Amino acid sequence: MRGRIAEVLWLSIFFGVFVWSAIDPRERFTWFLEVLPAIVGFAVLLLTRRRFPLTPLLYWLILAHMVVLMVGGHYTYAEVPFFDRLFGSERNNYDKLGHLFQGFVPAMIAREILIRKRVVPSRGWRNFFILCFVLALSAFYELIEWWVALASGAAADAFLGMQGDLWDTQSDMLFALAGGAAALLLLGRIHDRALRRAGFSGP
After folding, report:
1. Phi and psi of 140, rounded to 5°?
2. Helices (H), the chain
3. What does the domain layout of the chain look like in residue ranges?
4. Whole-structure pTM value
């Protein structure tokens, strides 16, 4: 019963934020680009929920990442309210939150898969490969942004979200790496307990 309530709540939050995000976004093309990973992620979760169900912890982390994407898509990352000039910065820093999540959540996804599939039994090596994966994923996303910019020209400016920062790509990858490291440090033991409660053997 509790699991069913949690599932309904999860779906309600996802579709509620998705519908809100889709209503009159600042730039429709940018909205589509930013929200597409959340749509793809939802489809993957739907297709794998019986064959390879994840821990509840991971489902909620993924939902949080999806919400970040949909909020960024609605406003564009350079114009999200309350994130202008934080900590003395001259730019809107919501995109840095997005890249932090881009490392934080995929790190936990990779951790769960590696543990359950027993790919890397050593905790130290597993953490190393997870951080390598996070950095590679972040770099690949930057390549996607570059390809979209080449294909779309000025229409992709809001998607890139550089805001005049020449080092935006490098700082994006640094934030993703920091997010991955933070996830392993802060949630490692919590995730181990979640795995055991779900009936999966821990590390």
Report:
1. -65, -40
2. 2-22, 28-48, 56-75, 94-116, 123-152, 157-160, 168-197
3. 2-197
4. 0.89
Structure tokens at 153: 């020209």
* Contact in structure between 30 and 76 (CB atoms under 8 Å): yes
Tokens of 104: 């934080």
pLDDT tens-digit series, residues 77-95: 888 888 876 655 667 889 8
For residue 103 the two structure tokens come to 């490392």
d(CA 33, CA 186): 31
Long-range contacts made by residues 52-56, C-beta under 8 angstroms, separation at least 24? 53/198, 54/109, 54/112, 55/112, 55/191, 55/194, 55/195, 55/197, 55/198, 55/200, 56/3, 56/6, 56/194, 56/198
Chain length of the chain:
203
Sign of CA dihedral 38, 63, 74, 96: negative
Give the number of other Cβ atoms within 10 Å of residue 159's Cβ.
Answer: 23
